[in-house]
């Protein structure tokens, strides 16, 4: 697709298009145009064909320079809107692909399916018709038939969701799920606070929780993991879902700071030199005062300067003759026999 139309943008048009394509604006018009051309080269491959739009616009015979400018502006607007819409559709399509397939009509599987889809739908990136068109491929059987009915008729996500609840969630099952997924749903030790809040709030909305909002917020606070509640000691108690999500952001920042400090502490301790361990040898043994051991040879290690019971070395099995080893008093067996004979 030619990019000459970008060179004809005014300053106001260039800034508007830069905001739509998430391109940082520059100080001059030429700088903004250059950034727009670079961005356009990246997204040009995923744009839908605009040949039909160009043919229709070319049929308009410009009678003046002003008319020619209007044609260029209309073409720029069509290309810009198409690029933004295409990128939004791709983002939603990638998110929907991460949702597990719904291949049965088990109420619990349907509830998990709706909770994950609600998080994507709340981004408001595509229309309800396009969203239902993307999720129909993730379903089968009766659920796919219900989606098809809404695609042909009036595509509304809220109405479709309500029909699923009315069809597969009788009152008894709905009450049981309200208890297990909302009121008695405890945060896991490795579960992020924001993910936990989104899952509980989504389940409460889908299952039709009818209680007051402050009561639900208080119940969620009671079900938080103890490691998370420790960050809430000096915070004001939230009374609404919005305040609860704001508190989750504050907790996430505190956790990130604490992890950074722990990492810095470990790096500091690992960089400290380890103390040197000096091995003890026979020559380092201090003898008793008034007793010279410089001429004695220890029969355990072969060193001099100490007796066997003060020897710091450990004999190795098989390398020392047991007959040459002394007893607890430092006397060899042969010397012990001589002493015993002398006493007799």
UniProtKB/TrEMBL annotation:
<protein>
    <recommendedName>
        <fullName>CCHC-type domain-containing protein</fullName>
    </recommendedName>
</protein>
<dbReference type="Pfam" id="PF00098">
    <property type="entry name" value="zf-CCHC"/>
</dbReference>
<feature type="region of interest" description="Disordered">
    <location>
        <begin position="313"/>
        <end position="344"/>
    </location>
</feature>
<feature type="compositionally biased region" description="Polar residues">
    <location>
        <begin position="313"/>
        <end position="327"/>
    </location>
</feature>
<dbReference type="GO" id="GO:0003676">
    <property type="term" value="F:nucleic acid binding"/>
</dbReference>
<dbReference type="GO" id="GO:0008270">
    <property type="term" value="F:zinc ion binding"/>
</dbReference>
<feature type="domain" description="CCHC-type">
    <location>
        <begin position="299"/>
        <end position="313"/>
    </location>
</feature>
<dbReference type="InterPro" id="IPR001878">
    <property type="entry name" value="Znf_CCHC"/>
</dbReference>
């Amino acid at each position: 697709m030619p990019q000459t139309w970008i060179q004809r943008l005014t300053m106001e048009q260039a800034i508007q298009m830069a905001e739509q394509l998430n391109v940082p604006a520059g100080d001059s018009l030429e700088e903004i145009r250059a950034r727009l051309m670079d961005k356009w080269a990246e997204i040009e491959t995923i744009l839908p064909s605009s040949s039909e739009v160009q043919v229709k616009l070319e049929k308009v015979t410009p009678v003046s320079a002003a008319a020619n400018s209007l044609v260029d502006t209309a073409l720029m607007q069509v290309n810009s809107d198409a690029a933004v819409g295409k990128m939004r559709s791709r983002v939603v399509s990638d998110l929907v692909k991460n949702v597990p397939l719904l291949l049965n009509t088990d109420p619990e599987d349907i509830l998990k399916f709706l909770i994950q889809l609600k998080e994507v739908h709340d981004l408001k990136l595509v229309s309800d018709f396009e969203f239902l068109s993307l999720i129909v491929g993730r379903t089968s059987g009766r659920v796919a038939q219900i989606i098809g009915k809404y695609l042909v008729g009036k595509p509304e996500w809220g109405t479709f969701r309500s029909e699923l609840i009315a069809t597969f969630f009788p009152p008894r099952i709905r009450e049981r799920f309200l208890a297990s997924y909302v009121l008695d749903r405890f945060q896991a030790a490795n579960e992020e606070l924001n993910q936990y809040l989104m899952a509980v709030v989504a389940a409460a909305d889908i299952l039709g929780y009818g209680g007051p909002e402050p009561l639900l917020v208080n119940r969620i606070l009671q079900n938080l993991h103890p490691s998370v509640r420790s960050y809430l000691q000096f915070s004001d108690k939230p009374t609404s879902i919005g305040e609860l999500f704001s508190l989750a952001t504050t907790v996430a920042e505190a956790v990130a700071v604490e992890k950074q400090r722990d990492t810095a502490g470990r790096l500091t301790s690992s960089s400290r030199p380890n103390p040197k361990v000096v091995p003890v040898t026979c020559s380092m043994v201090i003898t008793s005062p008034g007793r010279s051991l410089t001429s004695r040879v220890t029969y355990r290690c072969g060193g001099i300067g100490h007796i066997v019971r003060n020897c710091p070395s450990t004999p190795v099995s098989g390398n020392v003759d047991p007959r040459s080893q002394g007893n607890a008093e430092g006397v060899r067996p042969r010397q012990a026999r001589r002493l015993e004979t002398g006493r007799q």
